[in-house]
What we know:
This protein is mostly helical. The chain is built from 5 helices and 2 strands; from the N terminus they run ββααααα. It has helices at 21-28, 53-65, 71-76, 81-94, 99-109; strands at 2-6, 9-13. It has a two-stranded antiparallel ribbon. The radius of gyration is 17 Å and the shape is globular.
Amino acid sequence: MIRGRAGRGRSYEVKQPLERFVSLLEKFKETTTSQETLFGEIEPPKMEGKTYFIDYVHFLMALIEGGENVVPWLERFRGETPRLRAACEYLMARNKGFSTTLKKILDLMDVGPLFSTR
């Protein structure tokens, strides 16, 4: 979000995910190698500066819109999967313009069983 002044009031400009891509890529770049805990869970990635949850969502959306591979990032953000799923579903209901992009993210998160039980 960019703050500014318009006359006597304040104005705000909200950037779209693709507009934020370069700064988000810099924020999420690999600074250390991820390490598994005792029970095989991956620790959350360490990032420089303050990271808001919407940064995760916008980053994944920008990757999809740019035609990039999202799967390695979904694996890296695996600990955030339930929240990411809920955020994608919420944003799909609130903003139909993002539906296609968010549906692609959800489809990649929701991998079904390998074998049919029929």
